Amino acid sequence: MNSRSVVSALSMLAMVSACSADVLGSKGSLTADESAELAMQISSTIQSSAGTSAAASMTRRPSTPGLNFASVPVSLNLDTTVPCPLGGQTHLTLSVSGTVDQTAQTAALDLTGTNAPQDCGYHAKHVKVSVTGTPNLTQTAHVSVDHGVPTGVQSFSSNGSFDWSTDDGRSGSCSLNYTATADYGNSTVTVNGTVCGTTIQYSGPLTPAA
Question: Which of 12, 140, 145, 149 is the least buried, fewest Cβ under 10 Å from its Cβ?
Fold first, then answer.
């Protein structure tokens, strides 16, 4: 299995969650654009670690000459602390399960986990936002890959709360509770929920990054 296939599929969900959205209601002290990009950055952290770990697990599977392993189960748990893009760190606990066929380049994986940032710095538009979980965020995802490319219906959800501060002097608290779904069969994406007080209701075409 090409490790980039799994990482790409998981990373795609981060992009889906940041699609242009119809914004309703109060946004607090973060703008709608900042809120959407911050949500994308936070989700990218957990998905990147999950994708890399799943890919590493697949790579370590022994190859036995003469045997043709079709879909084989994948089950792994990750408990680690990783650095954040602009300083600070976040503690991740992840569980990834599913099946993988390395020969056919196919996979179906489910992810559940927690993300506990501590003074974790991210870019959000033109400001640095530092995030600390209160206590953490929970996230789930489902991805599927066929012949090395995302396929079927992919989903991602995030909920929880955190405190934040920006390098231009703003601060506050934020809650996340949203679900993003990408359907590769009809090339559509939907996002519903709330991000930092912003209601997101989006449905439209899926335009994956090249």
Answer: 149
pLDDT band (50, 70, 90) for residue 47: low
Is 103 inside a domain boundary? yes
Note the pLDDT tens digit of each residue in 125-160. 889 999 999 988 998 888 888 887 888 888 888 899
Q: If residue 17 lies in a helix (H) or strand (E), which one and from where to where?
A: helix 3-17
Tokens of 194: 């709330």
Q: Which residues constitute the domain of residue 34? A: 3-56+72-205
207 Cβ partners below 8 Å, 6+ apart? none
Is residue 193 in a domain?
Answer: yes
pTM of the model: 0.73
Tell me how many domains the chain contains: 1
**Distance from C-alpha of 99 to C-alpha of 95, rounded to nearest angstrom:** 14
Partner residues linked to 144 by β-bridges: 108
Q: How far apart are CA 148 and CA 1, in angstroms?
A: 8
